[in-house]
Write a structure and sequence with these properties.
With 103 residues, this protein is α+β, with helices and mostly antiparallel strands. The chain has helices at 3-6, 16-20, 60-81; strands spanning 26-31, 36-42, 51-58. It is extended and about 50 Å long.
């Protein structure tokens, strides 16, 4: 590896608050021609309403990179820990007025 590549490090800061993370059990994904919008939602059983805990916007190019990275990590996870089984699909409408998304 050349010195130029070794010195090309990316510093990423993670605050204490952000490090705690947010739990999400539903993601709504919508898009336009220029961006993807990921809404991460927490819905509690028996409650009539969920709450968006985080919203992430990215370009289509970055969304595709995220898809590839997530797929790669799922393959690695399943090779180490076994197949991830999917439970029942939610029993509520998934179209909230924008382009239809799935998560």
């Amino acid at each position: 590896m050349s010195d130029e590549v070794k010195n090309d490090k990316l510093n990423i800061e993670l605050s204490e608050e952000m490090a705690e993370g947010q739990y999400s059990n539903l993601a709504i994904i919508s898009h336009s021609s220029s961006e993807f919008v990921f809404d991460f939602i927490k819905i509690m059983p028996g409650m009539p309403k969920g709450k968006v805990k985080s919203r992430v916007l990215m370009t289509p190019q970055h969304a595709k990179r995220l898809f590839r990275a997530l797929n790669d990590n799922i393959v690695k996870y399943e090779s180490q820990l076994g197949k991830i089984t999917e439970g029942e699909q939610p029993n509520f409408p998934m179209n909230f007025g924008g382009p239809t998304g799935e998560a």
